[in-house]
Amino acid sequence: MHMNTIAFVGAGSMAEAIINGLVNGGVCLPEYIKVTNRSSMERLDFLNQAYGVSVTKNKQETVGGASIIILAMKPKDVKAGIESIKDYVDSSQVIISVLAGISSETIRKLFGKELSIVRAMPNTSAALQRSATALACNSAVTADQLKQAAGLFEAIGTVTHVLEHQLDAVTGLSGSGPAYIYYIAEALEKAAEETGLEKETAKALIAQTLLGAAEMLLTSEKEPAVLRKEVTSPGGTTEAGIEKLEEYKVSEAIAACVKKAKERSHELGEIFAKNALKEHT
Ligand SMILES: NC(=O)C1=CN([C@@H]2O[C@H](COP(=O)(O)OP(=O)(O)OC[C@H]3O[C@@H](n4cnc5c(N)ncnc54)[C@H](O)[C@@H]3O)[C@@H](O)[C@H]2O)C=CC1
Ligand SMILES: O=C(O)[C@@H]1CCC=N1
């Protein structure tokens, strides 16, 4: 019988965002969370101090007996990461991978056994329980296991179920998405300073503007284009500003950005499937 613990293999920014959301959202007691990484005890000690979670470099201690094992290393480290835990994992446990691009089939082959594998694509807003997470799973996952995985991610934001092949598109959109928004925020801050506002003043105005617009998108039944038109008085300031966005083809740039990120997610899957599975096929 497995204890109801969650094991994190990988202790970087994504693992921390999820741990933060779970612990500070009161969803999971820290004593039920175990974390390991490749080598940095300093990083593990930081997570222990900050969130009260158990940390150890011992892989068996981390994953043995956990009901859920979350793979949170970089795609390039998946082979070594799985190699170090596979002997302590069995089919009663649920594997959740947050790795961009790496398919459930690659993960299954690396473990070398049939396992219930859920793939999740959250984002770093998990730290504030505001992640937009998409989930897909392999055929071994039972309805109860999927519900359990969904429950975990619902605790740190919203959950959307997609087909596994759609996860590349999700990664290019909402997995990477916070970075696009921060990029826009950086550009707005720079522009605000150039137009005579202090940095701190601009920062507060920008954050509240993004938050308000996001809430409008979430709560209004109107399409984004309609909401945009409501801000845009004929002959006014918004129209003048948006003319510049059109001139610089910002809409096309955003489309190219999301497509390129999606393609990269797909590529990561292909590259690592080929490299990681070399000795496994
Ligand atoms: N950062 C983000 O916004 C998002 C990241 N992801 C995915 O999450 C995963 C982790 O990304 P980050 O947290 O940003 O990376 P990171 O570089 O901050 O953390 C990676 C962690 O994995 C550990 N690690 C490396 N090799 C290991 C091994 N052999 N065994 C155990 N642990 C090992 C490292 O020690 C480190 O703690 C990636 O696969 C990424 O695709 C998914 C959604 C969003
Ligand atoms: O940049 C990356 O590859 C990861 C996946 C989604 C967000 N960060």
Automatic annotation (TrEMBL):
Entry's EC annotation: 1.5.1.2
Gene Ontology BP, a term: L-proline biosynthetic process
Gene3D superfamilies xref list: NAD(P)-binding Rossmann-like Domain, ProC C-terminal domain-like
One Pfam family here: F420_oxidored
Pathway: Amino-acid biosynthesis; L-proline biosynthesis; L-proline from L-glutamate 5-semialdehyde: step 1/1
InterPro entries xrefs: 6-PGluconate_DH-like_C_sf, NAD(P)-bd_dom_sf, P5C_Rdtase_cat_N, P5CR-like_CS, P5CR_dimer, Pyrroline-COOH_reductase
GO molecular function: pyrroline-5-carboxylate reductase activity
SUPFAM superfamilies, per database record: 6-phosphogluconate dehydrogenase C-terminal domain-like (SSF48179), NAD(P)-binding Rossmann-fold domains (SSF51735)
Binding of NADP(+), residues: 72-75
Pyrroline-5-carboxylate reductase catalytic N-terminal domain segment(s): 5-101
One CC-aspect GO term: cytoplasm
Keywords: Amino-acid biosynthesis, Cytoplasm, NADP, Oxidoreductase, Proline biosynthesis
Compartment(s) where it occurs, according to its Swiss-Prot or TrEMBL record: Cytoplasm
Reaction catalyzed: L-proline + NAD(+) = (S)-1-pyrroline-5-carboxylate + NADH + 2 H(+); L-proline + NADP(+) = (S)-1-pyrroline-5-carboxylate + NADPH + 2 H(+)
Domain of life where this protein originates: Bacteria
Name of the top EC class for this enzyme: oxidoreductase
Domain Pyrroline-5-carboxylate reductase dimerisation: 164-268
Record-stated family: Belongs to the pyrroline-5-carboxylate reductase family.
Function comment: Catalyzes the reduction of 1-pyrroline-5-carboxylate (PCA) to L-proline.
Name of the protein described by the UniProt record: Pyrroline-5-carboxylate reductase
Source organism (scientific name): Metabacillus idriensis
The gene coding this protein: proC
